[in-house]
Amino acid sequence: MSSSDIAPPRRRTGRPSKQDSAPGHDAKTMLLHAAGAEFVEFGYEHTTSNRIAHRAGFAPQTFYRWYKDKLDIFIQVFEAWTDAELAQLDAMLTEQTDSLQIAQATVEHYRSFALFKRSLQQLAATTPEVKRARAGCRLKQIEQVKRWNPQMQDDEAIAALLIGSEQVCQALADGEFNDMGLTGTHAYRQLSELINQMRPDTAKL
After folding, report:
1. pTM: predicted TM-score of the whole model, two decimal places
2. pLDDT tens across 21-45, in order?
3. Helices 155-173 and 128-148, interaxial angle, to 10°?
4. N- or C-end of the chain: fewer Cβ atoms within 10 A?
5. What is the 3-state secondary structure (H, E, C) of 88-142?
6. Fold observed for domain 3-66
7. Domain ranges of the chain
């Protein structure tokens, strides 16, 4: 998944057009996409509700018609991000995309969302609402894995695999292996093997 899946690629300026203000346009979704772009580009700390509204093409007060505050929209961006990530992975698994290609795409995804994920980690350590949201998204991931492969039904085991693979993806995205003079080849192989474990039996490579 690219950043454009949760956020428009370009900043919007000025007042909303008549088309943007029309009843058929979902202001809540436009604000959500704008918030995603801001969080990806600047991180949570350096994003404001005013900047989100401006990026979506609305006046600042419009933000509060749909979202309680910046934390509220961050959590909703995270949940939408998780859904989009699972949907893309579901498509790649069922279309029998090569496991190594999936691993490489996942690491690139982590690299593209570096500031967003760093904000998530920091907030989860200090903010109960984000901690609960992260737990809920992990449980959603576990249920998806169980649907992909009915032979994997142990929640504890699946959670350990997912968290471990996430740490490996993050290390590859951050260049930790390169910093040690290593290629990361084994790490990519490990991720590929995990992906094959999760594949539906009909999509095993």
Report:
1. 0.83
2. 433 359 999 999 999 999 999 999 9
3. 110
4. C
5. HHHHHHHCCCCHHHHHHHHHHHHHHCHHHHHHHHHHHHHCHHHHHHHHHHHHHHH
6. Arc Repressor Mutant, subunit A (1.10.10)
7. 3-66, 78-203
